[in-house]
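Anyone able to model this chain together with iron/sulfur cluster?
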Amino acid sequence: MKYSEIFYTLQGEGKLIGIPSVFFRTSYCNLRCGWCDTPYTSWNPENKQISVAEALKQITQFKSKYVVITGGEPFLQKDELTELCQQLATNGHHITIETNATIFAPVAANLISMSPKLSNSIPIDKQWQKIHEAGRIKLEVMSSFLKQYDCQVKFVINSERDIEEVQDLVNSLSIPTESVVLMPQGINSDEIKQRQHWLAEVCKKMKYRYSPRLHLSIWGDKRGT
Ligand code: SF4
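re: yes, here you go
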């Protein structure tokens, strides 16, 4: 598999926030968000390879029940992802897959953590703008995940305009409000603080879940956390 890193930390976002978990970060993404916080998996992907067996061995060494497969976009490597998840499930792990929700495959997972990208993610790069814009929202993919898995749907929020986009998606897919998670956009604590009070009030009003970005407030914008 193309991968970027394997590390043990606390889940920093969403409804399992704070749970010690092993993260397996795949490499490569089909989108190019302007504010991507893991450019080493998207804009400038590293060319590291690992077999499913070796990934399983390295994940298992941390003796953590909770495993988070993230990216990049993990579903780009459907076959290997399916095999890895099957083996993790057989070993009794709780599996979360973090995805941009543009590609579906029926893998073994306990939680699908979708993060559909709003228009605030469109990059400046002209070449990628069209590809990103055409690919960032796939309603049929989101619908398949929602029907078949326990899901949370996380949105990175920059400004008030984003809330209308969230509401349109929530309405068109009938997403339960308790499954919607709003997070302030920012790659460090200061940027997040600028938006957190306003966003907390939005969540109270709309009955959405607010998620801080725990790893950023504890460790800052550091890899492997
Ligand atoms: S979908 Fe995720 S990994 Fe891909 S470019 Fe956007 S933020 Fe980066």
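Residues 189-206 form the longest helix (18 residues).
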